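Hey Z.,

So I finally got round to the fe (ii) ion thing we talked about over coffee. Here's the setup:
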Amino acid sequence: MDSNRSFDIDTTRPKVGTVLDFDLTDSSGRVILKAGRPFDESIRQRLLSSGIQKLTIRVETQAVSANQILLDSYPPESVARLQEMLSATEQSFDAFVKELMQDRQASCLDLLNQVDRLIAEATKEVSTLLAVLAARVDDGLQQESNRVQTRSTRLSCLSIIAGTELGLNSEDIKSIGLAALIHDIALLLHPEWRDPEYRSSRKEEFVEAFRTHPIESTRYLRFVTKLSQHAIMLISQIHEQLDGSGFPYGLRGLQIHPAARIMNVVDAYMEIANPTFREIGLVAPDALAHLCFHAAEGVFDRDATRSLIDAISIYPIGTEVEMSDSRRAIVIRTNPGRPLEPVVRFLDGPHDIADLVKMDLQILAPATAGKGLKRLDPKKEMLLPLWIATTNLDFFE
Ligand SMILES: [Fe+2]
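And the result:
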């Protein structure tokens, strides 16, 4: 709610004659004071008899979404250019898939050109790109943002950003940009996996098939031209875990390429925060905490995990938070080296910007309400492998 008009009525000392230009209603929607009618003794008595001594009225005006407030914090031409770039990437993905499905042959030249654009923008305008990506996730319904092309485009961008932070060479960056984009192509061959009934009625079959989807993707992509063996290898390794608990081959440690480890961590973070098959994801700081816990247990590459967190910080851009003065805010920029003190913009009242490094104001907690996310329940969920899309469906459904 945007409340840019707010005023109090003291019912013990009423301003008789106060006239509102809207109906004043109570929390159950009953009209207390009609628009245009003055506040008078009878209404004062009615409020007092209900134990109400003071009213704070907030006037709802046109709601401005948190995403809009986030995007308004960046130059509009940069936002528009990045939105166009991401849409163009998805369109190239769609055209590629169409061509591939028709005759099992396709060229990924177009996708490679898009990856070059993503890399250039990720180097030049990383904060704006992170803001645009965050807004795209929340703009769509969960289903929508989980469309393979939308999720893969985001995975590609975040892998490029985290891989750059890790110091991967340019060939690896280009390969992960492309591999992340097309690695889940096998999911498009199984639309039935999106159906909760199918997943629960054929659970074992589904879980088993899901564990081989990287192999299915690489088989499906083998006749694609301009697709390097390096990228194919990365696609096959994206779900392998450092401790051998991953799939499809159960590789461990040095058997897994460093570039695949970065994609693995980014994919895991995205899955925890925006699950493919479960209803509700975790707020970003809790998703990262979950990831860190399992990195410490040896499941994820620690350098890759650190690089992701260095790149997006603990309160990533787009995270909604509750502040120590009770207001809600959204993170619009991160402060290097000060992960707990980002720059935020208030969602309540005038949308002021506050750099928490320079102010005596703290983040109390990530907010769950606005984005339909939840906090991590450490007792029940910390040990679960929440990064695996098929994890413990019974638990969640
Ligand atoms: Fe996958």
